[in-house]
Design goal:
By secondary structure, the protein is mainly β. The protein contains 1 helix and 8 strands, in the order H-E-E-E-E-E-E-E-E.
């Protein structure tokens, strides 16, 4: 095999090895589990429950979630949640995001479309890493994978 061809084959093998190792690296995933009326001030706010799943083979220590969350005419909020929670390899944890409600929207709607986008920060082997996260769906949709809208009676 000529030298130039051997060199190109070697470079191709190195590139495929790097690509394969990059694809093998998993990143955390987020899922919106549901929403609930917040029982603290401000009165007109909701808690959005977000599950963070660690599919990697290493433990992660969550440090914060920067987010922008929107649900039709119900709410639109952005900010960050400070988190100090360990997630073992293959495990998950729930993070709560408190968002103010703009208006009640259509309270009789069977489903409310939502989006959540942001960046998740965690320590992995004492190094802070971050991952883009994004999820879309509908709250109250009639299937098992959709988040559920939870309503709580007022304590008055």
């Amino acid at each position: 095999m000529p030298g130039y061809l051997r060199r190109h084959v070697s470079l191709l093998a190195i590139a495929l090895t790097v690509l394969a190792s990059a694809c093998a690296t998993s990143s955390p995933r987020v899922t919106v589990l549901g929403v609930e009326q917040a029982h603290t001030t401000p009165r007109r706010s909701l808690l959005v429950f977000v599950e963070v799943v660690n599919p990697t083979g290493r433990d992660l220590r969550l440090s914060r979630l920067e987010y922008k969350v929107r649900a039709a005419s119900w709410f639109e909020s952005s900010g960050q949640v400070q988190v100090e929670r360990d997630i073992g390899a293959g495990s998950s944890a729930v993070v709560e995001i408190q968002v103010p409600v703009r208006q009640t929207g259509d309270s009789h709607a069977s489903s409310i479309p939502y989006t959540l986008e942001g960046r998740l920060f965690a320590l992995e082997d004492k190094i802070e890493r971050s991952w883009k996260v994004a999820v879309r769906g509908a709250i109250g949709r009639n299937d098992r994978s959709a988040p559920v809208r939870v309503t709580a009676a007022d304590a008055e």
